Amino acid sequence: MSRVLTRMGWTTVALAGLLGTSLTAGDFSASLRGGMGADRWDGVKNHLAFGLSYDQEISKGTSLIMELGYIYQPGTGGNVALPLATQAALPVTGTFNAPSTNFQKLTAQGITLRGIFRSELSGPWSWQTGLSVGTMKSRMDATGDIRDSTTATGVMAGGWTSSPEKTSMAINPFAGLAYSLGDMGYVEFNLVALNYKQATLTPTWVTGATGTNRVVPILGEKSVSHLNLEIGVAFKF
Question: Does the pTM exceed 0.85?
Protein backbone atom coordinates (compact mmCIF):
# COMPACT_ATOMS: atom_id res chain seq x y z
CA MET A 1 0.00 0.00 0.00
CA SER A 2 2.87 2.38 0.76
CA ARG A 3 4.17 1.83 -2.76
CA VAL A 4 0.77 2.66 -4.22
CA LEU A 5 0.55 5.88 -2.22
CA THR A 6 4.09 6.84 -3.23
CA ARG A 7 3.26 6.31 -6.90
CA MET A 8 0.08 8.37 -6.51
CA GLY A 9 2.17 11.13 -4.98
CA TRP A 10 4.70 11.09 -7.81
CA THR A 11 1.87 11.10 -10.36
CA THR A 12 0.37 14.20 -8.78
CA VAL A 13 3.80 15.86 -8.63
CA ALA A 14 4.34 15.07 -12.31
CA LEU A 15 0.98 16.59 -13.25
CA ALA A 16 1.77 19.72 -11.31
CA GLY A 17 5.23 19.80 -12.90
CA LEU A 18 3.65 19.92 -16.33
CA LEU A 19 1.99 23.14 -15.21
CA GLY A 20 5.42 24.60 -14.43
CA THR A 21 4.74 24.81 -10.69
CA SER A 22 7.34 24.77 -7.92
CA LEU A 23 6.10 22.34 -5.26
CA THR A 24 6.33 21.78 -1.53
CA ALA A 25 5.67 18.40 0.10
CA GLY A 26 2.03 17.30 -0.01
CA ASP A 27 -0.26 15.53 2.47
CA PHE A 28 -1.58 11.98 2.70
CA SER A 29 -5.10 11.38 4.01
CA ALA A 30 -7.71 8.67 4.56
CA SER A 31 -11.32 9.36 3.67
CA LEU A 32 -14.74 7.88 4.37
CA ARG A 33 -17.83 8.84 2.34
CA GLY A 34 -21.51 8.01 2.34
CA GLY A 35 -23.88 8.72 -0.54
CA MET A 36 -27.66 8.96 -0.70
CA GLY A 37 -29.80 8.67 -3.83
CA ALA A 38 -33.44 8.59 -4.86
CA ASP A 39 -35.57 5.46 -4.39
CA ARG A 40 -35.11 2.88 -7.14
CA TRP A 41 -37.05 -0.33 -7.83
CA ASP A 42 -33.87 -2.41 -7.43
CA GLY A 43 -32.93 -0.80 -4.11
CA VAL A 44 -29.44 0.22 -5.26
CA LYS A 45 -29.64 3.88 -4.28
CA ASN A 46 -26.99 4.55 -1.60
CA HIS A 47 -23.24 3.99 -1.46
CA LEU A 48 -20.35 3.76 0.97
CA ALA A 49 -16.78 4.54 -0.07
CA PHE A 50 -13.35 4.91 1.47
CA GLY A 51 -9.95 5.80 0.06
CA LEU A 52 -6.33 6.82 0.56
CA SER A 53 -5.20 10.01 -1.14
CA TYR A 54 -2.27 12.32 -1.81
CA ASP A 55 -2.96 16.08 -1.78
CA GLN A 56 -0.49 18.32 -3.61
CA GLU A 57 -0.80 22.11 -3.52
CA ILE A 58 0.12 23.42 -7.00
CA SER A 59 -0.39 27.11 -6.22
CA LYS A 60 -1.64 29.12 -3.27
CA GLY A 61 -5.14 27.87 -2.47
CA THR A 62 -5.24 25.34 -5.33
CA SER A 63 -4.58 21.59 -5.05
CA LEU A 64 -4.52 18.42 -7.11
CA ILE A 65 -5.57 15.25 -5.26
CA MET A 66 -5.19 11.62 -6.35
CA GLU A 67 -7.11 8.95 -4.46
CA LEU A 68 -7.24 5.15 -4.61
CA GLY A 69 -10.53 3.92 -3.20
CA TYR A 70 -13.30 1.36 -2.91
CA ILE A 71 -17.06 1.87 -3.35
CA TYR A 72 -19.91 -0.41 -2.29
CA GLN A 73 -23.61 -0.08 -3.12
CA PRO A 74 -25.89 -2.29 -1.03
CA GLY A 75 -29.26 -3.17 -2.52
CA THR A 76 -32.57 -3.98 -0.89
CA GLY A 77 -34.19 -7.00 -2.52
CA GLY A 78 -37.84 -7.57 -3.28
CA ASN A 79 -40.43 -9.28 -5.46
CA VAL A 80 -40.34 -7.86 -9.00
CA ALA A 81 -43.32 -7.81 -11.35
CA LEU A 82 -43.19 -10.27 -14.23
CA PRO A 83 -42.95 -8.91 -17.79
CA LEU A 84 -46.37 -8.23 -19.31
CA ALA A 85 -45.91 -10.91 -21.98
CA THR A 86 -45.16 -13.52 -19.31
CA GLN A 87 -48.13 -12.39 -17.23
CA ALA A 88 -50.44 -12.73 -20.23
CA ALA A 89 -49.14 -16.19 -21.17
CA LEU A 90 -49.51 -17.88 -17.79
CA PRO A 91 -52.17 -16.29 -17.19
CA VAL A 92 -51.81 -14.57 -13.83
CA THR A 93 -53.98 -12.33 -11.68
CA GLY A 94 -52.90 -8.89 -10.58
CA THR A 95 -49.32 -7.68 -11.04
CA PHE A 96 -48.19 -11.31 -10.76
CA ASN A 97 -49.92 -14.40 -9.40
CA ALA A 98 -49.84 -14.37 -5.59
CA PRO A 99 -48.14 -17.78 -5.22
CA SER A 100 -45.31 -16.73 -7.56
CA THR A 101 -41.93 -15.49 -6.38
CA ASN A 102 -39.62 -13.39 -8.54
CA PHE A 103 -37.15 -12.16 -5.92
CA GLN A 104 -34.22 -10.02 -7.04
CA LYS A 105 -31.53 -8.29 -4.98
CA LEU A 106 -28.78 -6.19 -6.55
CA THR A 107 -25.44 -4.99 -5.20
CA ALA A 108 -22.49 -3.23 -6.84
CA GLN A 109 -18.88 -2.66 -5.81
CA GLY A 110 -15.60 -1.60 -7.33
CA ILE A 111 -12.07 -0.18 -7.09
CA THR A 112 -11.72 3.46 -8.15
CA LEU A 113 -9.06 6.04 -8.92
CA ARG A 114 -10.35 9.53 -8.15
CA GLY A 115 -8.75 12.75 -9.37
CA ILE A 116 -9.80 16.01 -7.67
CA PHE A 117 -9.10 19.65 -8.50
CA ARG A 118 -9.75 21.90 -5.49
CA SER A 119 -9.58 25.71 -5.20
CA GLU A 120 -10.26 28.02 -2.25
CA LEU A 121 -13.42 30.12 -2.18
CA SER A 122 -13.60 31.99 1.11
CA GLY A 123 -12.28 31.19 4.58
CA PRO A 124 -12.28 27.42 5.14
CA TRP A 125 -14.48 26.74 2.09
CA SER A 126 -13.23 25.47 -1.27
CA TRP A 127 -14.94 24.26 -4.43
CA GLN A 128 -13.89 21.05 -6.10
CA THR A 129 -14.58 18.95 -9.16
CA GLY A 130 -13.16 15.75 -10.53
CA LEU A 131 -13.56 12.32 -12.06
CA SER A 132 -13.63 8.84 -10.60
CA VAL A 133 -12.54 6.00 -12.93
CA GLY A 134 -12.55 2.29 -12.17
CA THR A 135 -14.32 -1.02 -12.54
CA MET A 136 -17.73 -1.82 -11.05
CA LYS A 137 -19.07 -5.34 -10.52
CA SER A 138 -22.84 -5.63 -10.36
CA ARG A 139 -24.32 -8.80 -8.85
CA MET A 140 -27.92 -10.00 -8.73
CA ASP A 141 -29.12 -12.67 -6.31
CA ALA A 142 -32.34 -14.02 -7.80
CA THR A 143 -34.87 -16.70 -6.85
CA GLY A 144 -37.81 -17.62 -9.07
CA ASP A 145 -40.81 -19.83 -8.36
CA ILE A 146 -43.26 -18.91 -11.12
CA ARG A 147 -46.77 -20.39 -11.06
CA ASP A 148 -49.82 -20.14 -13.28
CA SER A 149 -53.29 -19.44 -11.98
CA THR A 150 -55.02 -22.69 -12.95
CA THR A 151 -55.41 -23.68 -9.28
CA ALA A 152 -55.61 -21.87 -5.94
CA THR A 153 -51.89 -22.34 -5.28
CA GLY A 154 -50.88 -22.34 -8.93
CA VAL A 155 -48.98 -24.93 -10.94
CA MET A 156 -45.23 -24.42 -11.23
CA ALA A 157 -44.22 -23.03 -14.62
CA GLY A 158 -40.55 -22.34 -13.89
CA GLY A 159 -38.03 -22.09 -11.08
CA TRP A 160 -34.42 -21.03 -10.54
CA THR A 161 -31.77 -19.74 -8.18
CA SER A 162 -29.17 -17.60 -9.94
CA SER A 163 -26.48 -15.01 -9.16
CA PRO A 164 -25.42 -13.34 -12.43
CA GLU A 165 -22.62 -10.75 -12.37
CA LYS A 166 -21.52 -7.99 -14.71
CA THR A 167 -18.19 -6.13 -14.56
CA SER A 168 -17.77 -2.88 -16.48
CA MET A 169 -15.75 0.31 -16.66
CA ALA A 170 -17.24 3.13 -14.59
CA ILE A 171 -16.55 6.83 -15.23
CA ASN A 172 -18.21 8.99 -12.58
CA PRO A 173 -17.91 12.81 -12.62
CA PHE A 174 -18.57 14.80 -9.43
CA ALA A 175 -18.51 18.35 -8.10
CA GLY A 176 -19.00 19.94 -4.70
CA LEU A 177 -17.60 21.84 -1.74
CA ALA A 178 -14.92 21.11 0.86
CA TYR A 179 -14.63 22.58 4.37
CA SER A 180 -11.12 22.63 5.82
CA LEU A 181 -10.47 21.32 9.33
CA GLY A 182 -6.94 22.69 9.27
CA ASP A 183 -4.20 20.14 9.91
CA MET A 184 -6.81 17.51 10.82
CA GLY A 185 -8.31 17.20 7.33
CA TYR A 186 -11.56 18.32 5.72
CA VAL A 187 -15.26 17.61 5.23
CA GLU A 188 -16.69 17.47 1.72
CA PHE A 189 -20.11 17.61 0.08
CA ASN A 190 -20.40 16.30 -3.48
CA LEU A 191 -22.99 15.55 -6.14
CA VAL A 192 -21.82 12.34 -7.86
CA ALA A 193 -23.07 10.83 -11.13
CA LEU A 194 -22.74 7.03 -10.86
CA ASN A 195 -22.62 5.10 -14.15
CA TYR A 196 -22.10 1.37 -14.70
CA LYS A 197 -23.51 -1.80 -16.28
CA GLN A 198 -26.00 -3.79 -14.23
CA ALA A 199 -26.75 -7.52 -14.47
CA THR A 200 -30.39 -8.31 -15.30
CA LEU A 201 -32.59 -11.41 -15.16
CA THR A 202 -35.89 -11.49 -17.06
CA PRO A 203 -38.46 -14.31 -16.52
CA THR A 204 -39.49 -15.16 -20.08
CA TRP A 205 -42.33 -17.32 -21.43
CA VAL A 206 -41.16 -20.08 -23.81
CA THR A 207 -43.71 -20.79 -26.53
CA GLY A 208 -44.41 -24.50 -26.90
CA ALA A 209 -42.69 -25.51 -23.67
CA THR A 210 -44.46 -27.61 -21.05
CA GLY A 211 -44.35 -28.22 -17.31
CA THR A 212 -41.71 -26.35 -15.34
CA ASN A 213 -39.91 -25.18 -18.49
CA ARG A 214 -42.62 -22.75 -19.56
CA VAL A 215 -40.87 -19.77 -17.90
CA VAL A 216 -37.04 -19.49 -17.95
CA PRO A 217 -34.61 -16.80 -16.71
CA ILE A 218 -32.92 -14.82 -19.49
CA LEU A 219 -29.71 -13.09 -18.35
CA GLY A 220 -28.64 -9.72 -19.71
CA GLU A 221 -27.36 -6.28 -18.80
CA LYS A 222 -28.41 -2.65 -18.85
CA SER A 223 -26.77 0.72 -18.33
CA VAL A 224 -27.46 2.44 -15.01
CA SER A 225 -27.02 6.15 -14.26
CA HIS A 226 -28.11 7.97 -11.13
CA LEU A 227 -27.14 10.95 -8.98
CA ASN A 228 -26.11 10.65 -5.35
CA LEU A 229 -25.53 13.32 -2.72
CA GLU A 230 -22.25 12.40 -1.05
CA ILE A 231 -20.91 13.52 2.32
CA GLY A 232 -17.40 12.59 3.41
CA VAL A 233 -14.63 13.28 5.89
CA ALA A 234 -10.86 12.95 5.38
CA PHE A 235 -8.14 12.81 8.02
CA LYS A 236 -4.57 13.78 7.23
CA PHE A 237 -1.68 11.64 8.43
Answer: no
